[in-house]
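Exercise: predict the fold of this chain.
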Amino acid sequence: MFDDQIRSIVIDLLVLLADEDYESIMERCSGSRVGGDDLQAAIQDYGRRVIAPPADYKFFRMIELEARAVPTWSVEADVWTEEGASDLTLQLTIAFEPDGPLVEIDGLNVL
């Protein structure tokens, strides 16, 4: 039911990441455990240029979290680089609150 919404959120964030628009990412994910500087540092440490994912992007995994007041998913999305799908992974928690999705970035790590 929420698959298309989650996919849209993930792709939007990956495009912003490729554009190095950390300010917009943090505006959308204000309650995150990491900040824009953390995202930028993780990409610099990774050493490859991040690009927007392809139109048919489906390189993410999601697990619905149990016992939550609202539908909530843990999401791991592969970040795309000039070499294709990478092992750099954007980790998110997405909760579908009554007034819209609440997105938190949990990390950007090599998995």
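Check your answer against the key: The two ends are 27 Å apart (CA to CA).
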